[in-house]
Amino acid sequence: MFVCLCKAVSDKAIKQNIASGACTMRDLKTNLGVGSQCGKCVSQASAILHNELVKQ
Length: 56
Ligand code: FES
Hints:
Radius of gyration: 10 Å
Largest sheet: 2 strands, antiparallel
CATH class: Mainly Alpha
Number of domains: 1
Order of helices and strands: EEHHH
Bound molecules: FE2/S2 (inorganic) cluster
Number of strands: 2
Strand content: 5-15%
Strand order of the largest sheet: 1-2
Shape: globular
CATH topology: Arc Repressor Mutant, subunit A
Number of helices: 3
Mean pLDDT: 98
């Protein structure tokens, strides 16, 4: 499922990036471009980030 349509970034890609060390929204923006255009994906991407960090 795409989370960020502007950059065509899926939830899977976000989870993989977090597993590779991303731990902030800034990391996800830098690495994948999430939230760098319209910003509509930020709340969902942030929720995924927090869920994944809790698991680590
Ligand atoms: Fe992610 Fe627009 S959907 S920046």
